[in-house]
Design goal:
The complex is a heterotrimer.
Chain A (H helix, E strand, L loop, with lengths): L1 H21 L3 H38 L5 H21 L4 H36 L3 H17 L10 H10 L1 H26 L8
Helix pairs in contact in A: 1-2, 2-3, 5-6, 6-7
Chain B lengths: L2 E3 L6 E3 L45 H4 L10 H11 L19 H4 L6 H6 L4 H9 L12 H4 L5 H6 L13 H6 L54 H16 L14 H23 L11 H11 L6 E7 L5 H17 L3 E6 L4 H12 L11 E6 L3 H10 L1 H4 L32 E6 L2 H15 L7 E6 L4 H9 L7 E4 H12 L3 H34 L3 H8 L1
Parallel strand pairs in B: 3-4, 3-6, 4-5, 6-7, 7-8
Antiparallel strand pairs in B: 1-2
Helix pairs in contact in B: 10-19, 12-18, 12-19, 14-16, 18-19
Chain C lengths: L2 H26 L9 H16 L2 E7 L8 H18 L7 E4 L2 H18 L8 E3 L4 H14 L2 E9 L4 H10 L3 E6 L2 H10 L2 E3 L7 H4 L4 H30 L3
Parallel strand pairs in C: 1-2, 1-4, 2-3, 4-5, 5-6
The chains are: A mainly alpha, B alpha/beta, C alpha/beta.
């Protein structure tokens, strides 16, 4: 009975929003706006719930002395300090900005730098892992774009910029479009399954 | 010397013995005599298998039974024979049986003299029994035939040497008739199971006799089974495995030993050192200055649109990138935002990312400090729009209701009660802004902006333009929006290359110039690493393959 | 309603009708087998191995917003979670789910609770957790799960960007299988190079059909196939007409 009720609500609201997007009826449009605002509010609340869950997970990890519980303690302390500083002084205060500028941005930037090394390593080992034509095309394209994007020590190889522009504007765009079309079809199928009640990622 | 055979075990005893030497059965019947008051003797531990086992000693009441009194009248005996006892009726003879009234048959029980028993005439039923017996009267019988000739005990008869000298006992004819033959095979019942042969008592030797005690109450030893199992080798292996699994459960597993430095680790570190070393060298020495790239059409469009902005134009600036990509995005957007500030535009900052508002503040403080833009005066930070694309749609449809306050909780919009901040003067809808600029690193987010904002911008008489400063990875996805007809995005600055090109256009923007040289050098080094490293690794793996695999590959 | 909206509405209705028709037909006619996708074959093997070997499955659903276009791939991730949770909840190491968005983490807990209830197992709400709110903080919070919680196989099915490479690398270092699928183009590019079993393009959306989530999943996959060929035909036709000057 409960499951049927949840499915009925999901179907009704999904239908209203979908039809409200296509059909310009005042009633539907107003309902759609209201429902979307509720969704925005719920999304913000879910963010808070997720944050609380994050805190609780690490608190449990720290108090039950699980492996690497020390890092959970660091997270908890950082969480409390940041919440306190930003909540008390405001997000644009110098202290808040100091935390952001000197801790968060450098850490995330370092992870991005690490990603660079990992991608280079993955590129080096790609042909060994997948020795096929697609890997050759993949690596060849990547190397060409890398050479053509940078200044190349001031050397202006003839045609390399045009080749790079052509690759970026034709095959890459075409491939991206194809993948995006497929993703769009999958999105429509998934959305319709949820609308029909065949997919129920809610209600347990 | 005369011998007397025990009526129970059938063994020979001296004539003067009153009890059997072997089974302690009485050889001489007890006669009641009040004068004799010998205490009763203890009952021996081993009782012979006879219902008539008599104690070794004599008790008073037994002694009193020994008398010369004639046997009861034939009438009473006849009553008994007729079944008086079967009916449960007692004999009609009311004669009180006292010590003096011991009947003859009782008196003829083994007593002091066996001759006395012979002298008494036997009753009819006893005569018949005596007469039917085929056993020769080899000895004087003190007791009835069936008493004087008990069934021999199987164990005792055959074990003793003297037993071979013993003469078999005499049985009454009727008993003899039903007695089984010694060597008769074990009878089998109708069910096919061997019948039980009674081994004790008066019914010894008979088969099919109901036991006195049912089998299920008889205490008997439980059957024993061999303890040794038959286990095959395979079963032993499985059992050991299972035992090992059970024993290991709950046992702390040893930590896996750290592997030594593998080739993968070496390769990773080599790549990292080469890349970072090249960049560090380039940044520290500054020897990799390179000419800025040429601008492209989409970049030039952005420049044209900004150049055409009126003074004190209202510009909506969205900071939708993550802190991890701030290095690239700051470098790409610096020259563009610098151009905006040079034009004196009022900026309204928003973001659909939780870290966006802070990134925006950081960007302005770090890269545009020379313009001395002040929050609340020259620019307004409206903060974070929750809800992703839906939140964006909500903001597009009604920005005042979606973000009514600034990041510093100051009322931002113009209303009847409030004048509103300078940056939002005269702004009610999205298309009241002269320019919308989105700084974004994610292609999906970029598409969301285009899809949500375009309906508003497509309205008639709308002069608002949409431009984007994006990461290089977004170019393949977003370029079609610029090349579409009509354009959905009026200009793009793609990555650091686009930012550097824009800096060359405006002649301003230090950050992309500083980054461009090392950036280009790093790109070349990375490309060479992938090319050379890939070739080397592939060659090594090909050469290391075993020959038969190569042969199979060539087929 | 303008022309574009009308075309969109018609397309949605036709697609819906196609799904229903194919679902009804599949009851009477045998369904044509789909091509083998190595990733799902290895996933089935990994699920069984995880229960027997006492390892844990780690499923990461990404950071897609539930009320945006990334919600579809997030729902796919939740469907996969539901399928594998029912298979692996009985083991002494139930699966762990990480996500980078609040609503997704709540739904993942809900799915785990439903699977626990279905088999009568105890539900631990910490099995579904939010590990970070930005892409790199999400990765940083997920890496300890991969390294420290005895994971036998990692499934990354959701909306991921290029940060996916860090998680794939961690899975490879930990010696566990990594199977990844995302709707993001940057993410697909990096996972082709870094993941053992990448799911490219629509293959992620076929997860439900390949894992036996229901007849409607199979019907929708077939409808996608048909629609794709229709669109390809229209594109080619349009290009041809443009080439010859008709359009």
């Amino acid at each position: 009975m409960k499951a049927t009720f949840y499915v009925a609500i999901a179907m009704a609201i999904g239908l209203i929003v979908l039809l409200g997007y296509f059909l310009h009826l005042d009633l539907l449009a107003n309902l759609r706006v209201v429902l979307l605002e509720w969704a925005v509010i719920l999304s913000a609340v879910a963010l808070l719930v997720g944050t609380a869950n994050l805190f609780y997970v690490h608190w449990r990890k720290f108090t039950t002395t699980q492996p690497n519980g020390f890092y959970s303690a660091v997270l908890i302390i950082s969480f409390v300090i940041t919440l306190g500083v930003v909540g008390w002084f405001g997000p644009t205060h110098a202290y808040s900005m100091w935390i952001f500028n000197n801790i968060q941005v450098p850490i995330e930037g370092s992870l991005m730098a690490l990603l660079t090394v990992l991608l280079a390593f993955a590129g080096v080992g790609l042909f060994r892992r997948k020795p096929n034509l697609m890997s050759i095309i993949f690596i060849g394209t990547a190397v060409l774009i890398l050479f053509a994007t940078g200044p190349l020590f001031g050397i202006n190889l003839p045609g390399i910029s045009e080749l790079r522009a052509w690759i970026a504007q034709v095959p890459a765009v075409a491939g991206a479009r194809g993948i995006l079309l497929g993703v769009a079809l999958g999105t429509i199928a998934t959305g319709l399954r949820v609308l029909m009640g065949a997919d129920r990622p809610y209600g347990g | 010397m005369g011998e007397i055979f025990c009526p129970m075990c059938g063994k020979s005893n001296p004539a003067e013995s009153e009890v059997c030497q072997f089974c302690q059965a009485r050889l001489v019947p007890l006669v009641f005599s009040p004068a004799e008051s010998e205490p009763p003797e203890a009952i021996p531990e081993e009782m012979p298998s006879s219902i008539d086992a008599a104690p070794t000693g004599e008790s008073d009441w037994l002694l009193g039974l020994r008398s010369d009194e004639p046997i009861p009248s034939e009438e009473s005996l006849a009553d008994v024979e007729a079944g008086g006892l079967e009916d449960g009726n007692l004999p009609s003879d009311e004669t009180h049986i006292s010590a003096d009234d011991v009947p003859d048959w009782l008196a003829r029980l083994p007593g002091e003299s066996p001759q006395e028993a012979e002298a008494e005439p036997l009753s009819d039923w006893l005569k018949e029994e005596t007469g039917e017996t085929e056993q020769p009267p080899s000895k004087p019988v003190e007791v009835s035939d069936w008493l004087s000739h008990p069934l021999p005990d199987e164990g005792q008869v055959e074990s003793s040497e003297s037993e071979s000298e013993l003469a078999p006992g005499e049985f009454p004819s009727w008993l003899e008739a039903i007695r089984p033959v010694k060597d008769e095979p074990q009878t089998v019942s109708a069910r096919g199971t061997p019948e039980r042969i009674e081994s004790a008592g008066p019914l010894a030797g008979l088969s099919g006799v109901l036991p006195a005690e049912p089998d299920h109450v008889r205490p008997r030893k439980s059957p024993t089974y061999p303890l040794e199992l038959r286990v095959s080798a395979n079963q032993r292996i499985h059992a050991d495995l299972l035992q090992g699994l059970i024993e290991s459960e709950g046992r702390a597993q040893p930590l896996p030993q750290r592997r030594g430095i593998s080739s993968q680790h070496v390769l990773r570190w080599t790549i990292a050192c080469v890349l970072w070393g090249a960049l560090l060298w380039s940044v520290i020495t500054g020897k990799q200055e390179a000419p800025l790239p040429a601008y492209t059409e989409e970049t030039a469009e952005v420049n044209r649109l900004i150049s055409q902005l009126p003074g004190e134009a209202r510009v909506l600036l969205a900071f939708d990138y993550e802190p991890g990509l701030s290095a690239e995005m700051d470098a790409a957007a610096t020259a563009v935002v610098d151009h905006l500030m040079l034009r004196g535009a009022y900026l309204t900052l928003v973001s659909t990312s939780p870290t966006g508002p802070i990134l925006a503040e950081r960007f302005i403080m770090k890269t545009q400090s020379s313009h001395h833009y002040t929050s609340g005066v020259n620019y307004v930070n409206l903060g974070y729009i929750p809800g992703g694309a839906m939140g964006l749609l909500s903001f597009v449809e009604n920005p005042q209701r979606t973000l009514p306050y600034t990041l510093d909780t100051v009322a931002a919009w113009e209303s009847e009660a409030h004048a509103g901040l300078p940056a939002l003067q005269g702004v009610q809808h999205l298309n009241d802004f002269e320019l919308l600029m989105v700084i974004v690193d994610d292609p999906d987010l970029a598409r969301a902006w285009v899809e949500q904002v375009q309906p508003q911008l497509n309205e008639p008489d709308t002069l608002t333009s949409l431009v984007m400063v994006t990461s290089a990875q977004v170019e393949p996805v977003m370029r079609p929006y610029f090349e579409a007809n009509p354009r959905q995005v009026h200009g793009f600055v793609f990555g650091l290359r686009g930012g550097a090109a824009y800096a060359q256009l405006t002649g301003r923007g230090e950050l992309p110039r500083v980054y461009w040289g090392p950036y280009g050098f790093g790109l070349v080094v990375a490309a060479l690493l992938i090319l050379i490293g890939g070739l080397v690794l592939s060659s090594v793996s090909l050469l290391a393959r075993p020959p038969q695999v190569k042969g199979e590959a060539n087929q | 309603m303008n022309q574009l909206e009308l075309i969109g509405l018609v397309f949605v209705i036709v697609f819906f009708g196609l799904m229903l028709t194919l679902a009804i037909l599949s009851r009477t006619r045998p369904v044509r087998q789909f091509r083998e996708i190595q990733a799902f074959t290895r996933l089935r093997h990994a699920v069984g191995l995880a229960v027997e070997a006492g390892n844990r499955l780690h499923l990461s659903i990404g950071r897609g917003n539930l009320i945006g276009p990334q919600s579809a791939v997030a729902f796919v991730g939740l469907t996969v979670l539901d399928r594998i949770a029912r298979s692996t909840m009985v083991s002494d190491r139930p699966p762990v789910v990480t996500s980078g968005e609040g609503a997704i983490s709540v739904l993942s807990q809900d799915s785990l609770r439903g699977a626990s209830r279905a088999i009568g197992a105890e539900f631990d709400p910490l099995r579904g957790r939010l590990t970070g709110l930005t892409p790199f903080s999400y990765v940083a919070g997920t890496l300890p799960v991969i390294y420290d919680e005895d994971v036998g196989a990692n499934l990354f099915i959701g909306s991921f960007g290029s940060e996916l490479a860090l998680m794939n690398e961690a899975g490879e270092r930990a010696g566990s299988l990594t199977l990844a699928g995302t709707d993001n183009l940057s993410g697909q590019a990096v996972l082709y190079a870094t993941a053992e079993e990448p799911l490219i393009g629509e293959e992620t959306y076929a997860s439900g059909a390949y894992l036996g989530a229901g007849a409607m999943h199979i019907a929708s996959l077939r409808a996608q196939d048909i629609s794709r060929w229709v669109i390809i035909s229209l594109i080619l036709l349009g290009a041809l007409l443009k080439l010859i000057g008709v359009l």
